[in-house]
Specification:
By secondary structure, the chain is mainly beta. It is built from one helix and eleven strands; from the N terminus they run E-E-E-H-E-E-E-E-E-E-E-E. The chain has a single domain, classed as Beta Complex (Metal Binding Protein, Guanine Nucleotide Exchange Factor, Chain A), CATH 2.170.150.70. The strands form two sheets. The chain has an eight-stranded mixed sheet.
Length: about 140
Amino acid sequence: MDKVWNAGCACGQLSIRLARAPRKVSSCCCEACQKRTGAFVGVTVFFDEDQVIERRGEARVWRRTAESGNGLDYSFCPTCGSTVWWRADARPGVVAVAGGCIADPELPGPERIIWTEHRHPSVRVAEGVREYPKGPN
């Protein structure tokens, strides 16, 4: 049986279930991710839309425009405020899930870290992880 990934908000009201291995796991040091997560680094787990098995709960959506000019729609829990997943206009058919919302020790670590020009001095990068001062090309 394929792996099923469960991601949910802090209060448990909003969740998403996804099948199979993620496309990619990425860390981001941009200021928007720092503000969204309240941490120095955000972790994003990318899945194809056809990997979504189920969404449960009420989500509110907040739209922002990235430095690139592309729009992003963040789905978050209106009760606890946790951002659980989002979509980027630049990546149709892809669902990005907040890594911290997937409480599973089998989740692979990030293979890259982006926007390192905003990296906090205390953030250490694991050996073999590709670094990008801005977004990857």
